[in-house]
Amino acid sequence: MFIVGLTGGIASGKSTVADCFARHEIPVIDADAMARAVVEPGQPTLDRLIQTFGQDILDPDGRLNRERLRQRVFADPTQRRQLDRIMHPAIGLAMQQALREAQGPYVILMVPLLVETGQHQIVNRVLVVDVPESVQIARLMTRDGGDAEQAAAILAAQTSRARRLAAAHDIINNEGPAAALDAAVDRLHAAYMDMATDPGAREARLRLP
After folding, report:
1. Is the dihedral of CA 17, 18, 20, 26 positive or negative?
2. Domains of the chain with bracketed CATH
3. Are 149 and 184 in contact (CB under 8 A)?
4. Distance between CA 162 and CA 171 in Å, rounded?
5. DSSP readout, 139-153?
6. What pTM did the predictor assign?
7. Least confident stretch, 36-40, 104-108, 133-137, 183-187
8. E strands along the chain, which residues?
9. Number of H-type helices and E-type strands within the chain
């Protein structure tokens, strides 16, 4: 299976790009969806989180309160590493199973922390959805209702834009209108269809639009 790793900074538009590929009937494996699935009630990963962080990370109905857990570990590097040690292997196993079951000429593996976790080394291509940090901050403020300082702190907790771009084979600039994004994905889809069957076509590097 030819695997395209899709990533980008927060509020860059990864999900929108993934939806564009899905309209071409390309399987999309979403690491965030996997992260939600592995902490459903009854899952061993949730049990490990409770053992590590306590019962107060749960809602009254026994489901994980993701926002409460996120706030708890955000400012504590030690707890954040503990969370990563529990979540990353569980998500990785779930993604491997999904990849084995995927049907199509190629598959999109959407992982926000693709570069940070080293998973860019297990895919055939890295596609980065890119926007300037000023655009990310503006979108975060609109989406979450926070201020610029809070948005900048969230960006600072991720890997740098430069590091993501350095790992990229292909880049989509997502500052423009939806029509431009659709056209960019159309071009990438055609290229990935070629690459899936012809290894010689994989040398190209694309920056769109």
Report:
1. positive
2. 1-27+105-209 (3.40.50.300), 31-101 (no CATH)
3. no
4. 12
5. HHHHHH---HHHHHH
6. 0.86
7. 133-137
8. 2-8, 28-30, 106-110, 125-130, 170-173, 206-208
9. 9, 6
